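Students often ask why inverse folding is considered easier than folding. One informal answer: many sequences map to the same fold, so there is more than one right answer. In these notes we will look at a single instance of the problem. The structure comes first.
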């Protein structure tokens, strides 16, 4: 009987606090977006910091504590290129005033891997009492606003913007996804040569990179378990208008074209009878996957030309990458040194 009375007394103390907190609670999972040159997705999990004190069977809020302190875990989604996105997570601490509806969150610590150039974002805003949406400003000089829908509410989609940075998506080298260009390269098709185009040249505002295009290309190849098999340097003619590089493909390999210098106006074409895929803007640098139709592999030639007459002509390298997996019992674990190799990078970097 005594225990039952204590339980009822405890419930009498706790129910009013719970009822009061339920209507004003900011805790929950919010989905929305933030604007840093372009809109990107944002996920925020907010928790209320409890300052309750337990005395025997009863729980009390400390005198004078208004329960304003909150913590949050944030997932920000960002653009690595016009064709790729990434996600990073960090923790936040701050306050929420239920009387005014104002919210303030400061970034604290990263939770896991993130690009070195990515900055944590702080949030200052307010909660709409009718809709329960959180809206406000992002504390970053390159950003302006954010909006978060309350738990259980879907975020309306944004209108699709025009592809201003991708004006010629008909061209394989400027498509967002890889394109099989086997028929395109057929001499009977009379197709124009590919334009040398670095994906970063199509960047939208707010794009975050891990390094130079060649650094990102090498990271992609390592991630796909390809090892550097060597590089070919393009040899230009006396006038610097036309260049060539010999090459070969075994079974299925990838080829990355890296240009250093005045690279605008450079065009190129692999002269080969094989199954060829151009990665377009889905790769940091012009990248091909070539599958030989002959069992012993195929020797072929790269042809380059350019419209500019600046001297000296740019330095161009074609890096060949070979797969390290897919051979069944012959697969083995490769070291980073084996995957990157001594080459597959121009002696000097900096795509202009």
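Output (designed amino acids):
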């Amino acid at each position: 009987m005594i225990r039952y009375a204590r339980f009822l007394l405890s419930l009498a103390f706790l129910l009013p606090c719970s009822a009061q907190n339920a209507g004003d609670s900011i805790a929950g999972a919010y989905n929305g977006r933030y604007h840093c040159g372009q809109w990107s997705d944002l996920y925020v999990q907010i928790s209320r910091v409890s300052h309750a004190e337990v005395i025997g069977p009863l729980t009390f809020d400390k005198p004078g504590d208004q329960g304003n302190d909150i913590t949050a875990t944030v997932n920000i989604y960002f653009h690595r290129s016009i064709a790729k996105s990434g996600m990073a997570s960090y923790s936040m601490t701050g306050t929420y005033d239920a009387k005014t509806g104002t919210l303030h969150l400061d970034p604290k610590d990263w939770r896991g891997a993130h690009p070195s150039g990515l900055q944590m974002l702080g949030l200052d805003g307010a909660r709409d009492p009718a809709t329960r949406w959180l809206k406000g400003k992002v504390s970053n000089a390159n950003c302006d606003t954010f909006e978060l829908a309350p738990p259980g509410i879907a975020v309306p989609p944004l209108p699709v913007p025009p592809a201003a940075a991708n004006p010629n998506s008909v061209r394989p080298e400027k498509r967002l996804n890889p394109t099989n260009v086997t028929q395109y390269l057929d001499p009977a098709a009379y197709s124009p040569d590919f334009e040398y185009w670095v994906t970063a040249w199509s960047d939208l505002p707010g794009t975050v990179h891990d390094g130079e295009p060649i650094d990102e290309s090498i990271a992609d190849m390592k991630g796909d378990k390809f090892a550097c098999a060597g590089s070919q340097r393009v040899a230009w003619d006396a006038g610097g208008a036309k260049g060539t590089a010999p090459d070969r493909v075994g079974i299925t390999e990838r080829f990355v074209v890296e240009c250093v210098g005045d690279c605008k106006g450079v065009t190129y074409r692999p002269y080969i009878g094989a199954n060829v895929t151009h990665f377009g803007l889905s790769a940091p640098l012009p990248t091909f996957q070539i599958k030989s139709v002959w069992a012993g592999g195929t020797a072929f030639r790269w042809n380059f030309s350019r419209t500019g007459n600046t001297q000296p002509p740019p330095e161009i390298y074609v890096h060949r990458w070979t797969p390290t997996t897919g051979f069944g019992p012959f697969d083995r674990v490769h070291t980073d040194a084996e995957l990157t190799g001594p080459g597959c990078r121009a002696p000097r970097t900096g795509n202009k």
